[in-house]
Design brief:
With 387 residues, the chain is α/β, with parallel strands linked by helices. It is elongated, with a radius of gyration of 25 Å.
């Protein structure tokens, strides 16, 4: 029986996938798996019982990944599960950025109690005139699960779309509209586009990528959208650009103390994944990944260990070894198995940075003595006997 603890409310569509082999526990220290959305875990102590953490969402800033890896705890996220919700909100942001809808709504509220409101609306609406999206150029930086569909949707709206993503996957590339213009550098996006939308992860190369230098390369009156990560944009530089007119609007899903009160900013309260459908999909994906790991030892969509998937366990024995990525680890594992005169029918070894995972399928049930032997190998962090 596996015990699961939820740090946040997790959609029932996900929790309903748990079989009779699972039970929910209110005590985190008793759980083999923790499901989380936004709760902060950096100060949380992990019990030895804990095998997996699943974030029902993409971002994992609230989880101590290195600490979890060191203790042999696999951390999962759910990339793409909330993509459609973010895509739709980004399209909404594009419309808000091209039409002065927000200021117009606020103005109507300011005169709503006046008897001649209809006349005033007809007289004053010109102050909120905007532009159509059709015929304008959109630059999409990052063409993954969100950026790709945004680019495709913009094409259908009649926009000229430029896309930049040096790490685009083959699958993502196949799903792109053939009329999207692929460029080799972000500078081409900056120079050519009326509107720019960001869909990249936060990396050393992308942190504050929208800064004084990049803003200086852009068209006057550009509209910038950020539905990816707050720190992709230098707020100080953005404030200057808005004040000067270089940027006409900045639409962000990540309000902070500065941007929330900045003129020219439309700050949305982090609603990208805030739909019922998104929460359902994220929960279902997180639960399925945890169940597959607990029952079969497979790692899919981990953020601190490599993906390592041997499918449903059908052999008499299976071992999962989480270990440091150091030379000759696999040789020591196979030697330990051979010493006990056990045949390895299949194996998989994958590494990711400092950590690695090895799955061994055996022709006999795994003896506990072998588990204990493997625990003594240098660099081993956890050994799990699946069968």
């Amino acid at each position: 029986m596996y015990q699961v603890h939820c740090l946040n409310q997790i959609s029932s569509k996900g929790m309903d996938l748990l079989t009779q082999d699972y039970t929910q526990t209110p005590a985190a220290e008793e759980a083999q798996a923790i499901l989380v959305r936004s709760a902060a875990m950096h100060d949380m102590a992990f019990s030895h019982e804990l095998l997996a953490i699943a974030r029902a969402g993409a971002g994992v800033n609230n989880i101590p990944l290195e600490k979890a890896a060191e203790q042999g705890v696999v951390v999962f996220n759910t990339p793409g599960a909330n993509a459609n919700s973010v895509v739709e909100l980004c399209l909404c942001g594009m419309l808000l950025g091209s039409r002065d809808v927000v200021d117009g709504i606020n103005w109507v509220q300011s005169i709503k109690d006046q008897d001649d409101i209809a006349k005033k609306v007809e007289k004053g609406k010109s102050k909120f005139a905007g532009h159509e999206l059709a015929g304008k150029s959109l630059g999409v930086i990052g063409l993954g699960a969100v950026g790709g569909p945004v680019a495709n949707a913009a094409r259908r709206l009649g926009m000229t779309v430029y896309g930049c993503d040096p790490f685009i996957s083959i699958d993502a590339a196949w799903h792109l509209d053939s009329h999207i213009i692929k460029v080799n550098s972000r500078d081409e996006i900056y120079q050519k586009c009326d509107m720019i939308t960001l869909h990249t992860p936060l990396l050393p190369d992308t942190t504050k990528m929208i800064n004084r230098e990049s803003l200086g390369k852009m068209k006057d009156g550009v509209v910038i959208l950020n539905f990816a990560r707050d720190l992709l944009v230098d707020d100080e530089a953005m404030e200057e650009a808005l004040r000067s007119g270089k940027v006409r609007r900045y639409i962000t899903d990540f309000p902070n103390q500065k941007t929330a009160s900045m003129a020219g900013v439309i700050a949305i309260p982090h609603l990208g994944a805030s739909t019922q459908e998104s929460e359902d999909k994220c929960a279902m994906m997180a639960v399925r990944q945890v169940m597959d790991y607990l029952e079969n030892g497979n790692i899919v969509n981990s953020v601190n260990y490599p993906n390592c998937d041997m499918g449903i366990c059908t052999k008499p024995g299976r071992l999962v070894i989480l270990h440091r990525n150091i030379p000759n680890s696999l040789g020591q594992f196979t030697s330990a198995v051979a010493k006990r005169n056990i045949n390895i029918s299949d194996l998989m070894n994958r590494s990711r940075g400092a950590f690695a995972c090895t799955i061994l399928d055996l022709d006999t049930a795994t003896p506990q003595e072998l588990v204990e032997d493997l625990k003594t190998v240098d660099g081993v962090l956890r050994v799990r006997k699946i069968r």
